[in-house]
Amino acid sequence: MKNGKRILRCGALFLGSAAFLLLLLRAARPAEPAVPAFSPAGEEATLWVDGSAVTGVFRGGRHYADAEAFLAALDADFWRGEKEDLRRSLGGARTLCAEDFCEAQGIALYGEGGAELWCSSAAGDWEPPPGVRVPVLMYHGVGDDCWTSPTLFTSPDDLRAQLAWLLDNGFTPIFFEDLKHADAIEKPVLLTFDDSFRDNYTELFPILKEYGVKATLFVIQGTVGWDANLSAAQLREMLASGLVRAECHTQYHYFLDELSDEQLIEELCWSKAALTKLTGRIPCAIAYPAGREDARAVAICRREYRFGVKMGGPVYVTGEDPFFVHRIAVPRGISLGEFAARLLAAAG
Ligand SMILES: [Zn+2]
Questions:
Q1: pTM, to two decimals
Q2: What are the tens digits of pLDDT across the range 148-177?
Q3: What backbone phi and psi angles, to 5 degrees, belong to 296?
Q4: Is the CA virtual torsion 322, 310, 188, 340 positive or negative?
Q5: So where are the chain's domains?
Q6: N or C: more exposed end of the chain, with fewer CB within 10 A?
Q7: What separation in Å is there between the alpha carbon of 138 and the centre of ligand 1?
Q8: Which residues surround ligand 1, an ion (CB under 5 A)?
Q9: What's 133-347's CATH class?
Q10: Contacts 24+ apart (CB under 8 A), 39-42
Q11: pLDDT by residue (tens digit) across 53-108?
Q12: d(CA 216, ligand 1 centre) in Å
């Protein structure tokens, strides 16, 4: 009998332990997955929204994303106070279709029919407010190793002095997309560097960081990775700093007015597509090689870009034809006095 009781007691103990273990196991089980923020099923997609990757879904040839994630990735400087309007336009929907949303809001899209999609505000449908004088400075290389035409290379010390002068005199270096708010920016100035020489990484980039100044690189897309030119990794590192934008300087820098119609498409459109995939942003501006263009080239650029940039000429005033933006050359050896005089004359 005693043995029987002991067996019963052991049995109860065993059952109690088993129940406890079961409880433990239940507690250790992972929590139910949260309800996903967007409902469409399909292939996983990457949406590059103003340069940031947003994970979404690709289904039926269209791209869907979590609305808040998409809005958060849109460039805050470009949209400024308008993000609430964008949010309201969604009427409380938690999911957005990128194609529908971008078309409604004038955001440029680029895709190749696959799961990856690029959405860029700056390349979209917008105009700068008119009547603002914007000096656009033209540089090329930075350094004292003048391995090609010396006038193309600004000495690092001269560049430092020029940037310090601009900042001391109340100028605000901006990107092309900042022209959306040109009337709210104190003395806007655009610093542009053509031909994507490698010294733009080794010499220019440290100076931009030192002064916290924005600069635009006009990249010859086909030369990325060449010995004398920026590598893809260098370009991406510069872009990630937020101080640099890459805009288009064609594929191989041929003179546009000498090309066939087919070659024009390669130089103006293929380079745009390749630069978009390289940088995550659709370029919004193009610099015509050597400032040369013709009616055919400009017609294509009007379809593909927001701005077309020349070389010398009068200062750019917003509201004028954005496909004939003239620049002020800053040649090697220019004195600070002459630099200042050109800037002050341009800024009016
Ligand atoms: Zn060039």
A1: 0.88
A2: 898 899 999 999 999 999 999 999 999 999
A3: -65, -45
A4: negative
A5: 43-120, 133-347
A6: N
A7: 10
A8: 194-195
A9: alpha beta
A10: 39/95, 40/64, 40/95
A11: 999 999 999 999 999 999 999 999 999 999 999 999 999 999 999 999 999 999 99
A12: 13
